[in-house]
Amino acid sequence: MAAKGALARYHRRRDFSKTAEPEGRLAEPSSNGSPSYVVQIHDARSMHFDFRLEADGVLKSFAVPKGPSRDPHDKRFATPTEDHPLEYRDFEGVIPPGEYGGGAVIVWDEGTYRNVSSDRAGHEIPLAEALERGHASFWLDGRKLHGGYSLTRIRTGEGGGREAWLLVKHADERAASTGTPDPRRARSARTGRTLGQVAAAVRAAGDRR
Ligand code: MN
User: Fold this and answer.
1) DSSP bridge partners of 58
2) pTM score > 0.85 for this model?
């Protein structure tokens, strides 16, 4: 289990009387044995993908401006964001304008993963620890993404700068030459909807009130 307070930053940034995002608590790990991951597309101040891996009862989260690629030649810049509650993997909707992260969110991809992180001697290390050390590898079994990926820290946050990471596809049998689709045309793995359709549905529901 994660330490108490692991979601403190998540809670501090949000007013749950205004946003429909889950308040969320620390949760027990997925009971079926395989931890989950989710990739959301978030039409916030700047469009980005949110890549989240279940570990230690939370979703370890990274904002990936261009989104994950299936092409091992693509090095996708990623920035760590605060741990999110596990329930966040179900969130698709609109964060109200003016609130933290205001804008539409769709669940672009979801699935389970297998941690394949190891130290230099080849010993397996837990995912959360691998992230702390700055290099994690995992095999995704998702609706859209498949195969091995790594997250590697290329710049620490020491000295005031923002931490920087790269998300890269492994050159394995699930690698491909196709990148990531246009986020505005991409469709939810849950509902088939685009960001625009999710935003329109929320507007329509508001108009009926
Ligand atoms: Mn986001």
Assistant:
1) 55, 85
2) yes
